[in-house]
What does this fold into?
Amino acid sequence: MHKILIVDDEEAARIMTCKMVERMGYIGFKTSDAQRAWEILEDNSDISCVITDRMMPDITGDELAQKLRDSERFSEIPIIMVSAYVTVKDTAQLLESGISAIIPKPLSKDALEEHLNRYLKK
It folds into this structure.
């Protein structure tokens, strides 16, 4: 069973996203910040995908994604970014930087499921 890490500083969004992935049959891990996300990934090498908010205090989702892409260990992990603030230009830059997919907030179960099915095989 695939494990998915959810990173979002908004508690309600974090809980909702975790419930969505668990209803889809995945195991959800959640945290409110990118630094803790990195620690969870290092302790759980079998995490299959990261879903991260873009705008977070301290370390943004963009910075977390870059850190993952720069890491030999996590360079291939699918990264799904969710954000209420993404322009067309942002989208192009994020996809070029290695983000696997971008989903606008509010997060749609159908959109999330479509992307997870694309990147993960149950």
Observations:
- The CA atoms of residues 17 and 101 lie 15 Å apart.
- The first helix runs from residue 11 to 23.
